[in-house]
Design brief:
The chain has 89 residues and is an all-alpha fold. Helix content is 33%, strand content 0%. The chain has one domain.
Length: 89
């Protein structure tokens, strides 16, 4: 999924997002999930409508930010890989 551009770098010890991380952009992208098997899209739409809080500070281990879905929505993943992507998201 990383090589396909669907998630950020998967090997990290950090749990801290950079101060300028654009959560809205990621949540907006997640709102495009219209699959019947997933409630992710409707949940993301609710977050956008009602507001959301950024995660707690976490720990920056100096390697990479936490694993995060990218703005590229996975329209062509097989069902097992899509389940893993949804878990990450």
């Amino acid at each position: 999924m990383y090589l396909g551009g669907y998630i950020t770098y998967p090997r990290t010890e950090s749990t801290h997002y950079p101060n300028n991380f654009n959560f809205k952009e990621i949540i907006d992208n997640l709102s495009k999930d219209t699959s019947k098997e997933s409630r992710l899209g409707s949940y993301a739409k609710k977050l956008l409508a009602e507001g959301y809080k950024n995660p707690k500070a976490g720990k920056d281990m100096g390697d990479h930010p936490p694993i995060t879905p990218t703005t590229q929505y996975p329209h062509n993943l097989d069902s097992d890989t899509l389940k893993i992507w949804t878990y990450v998201a």
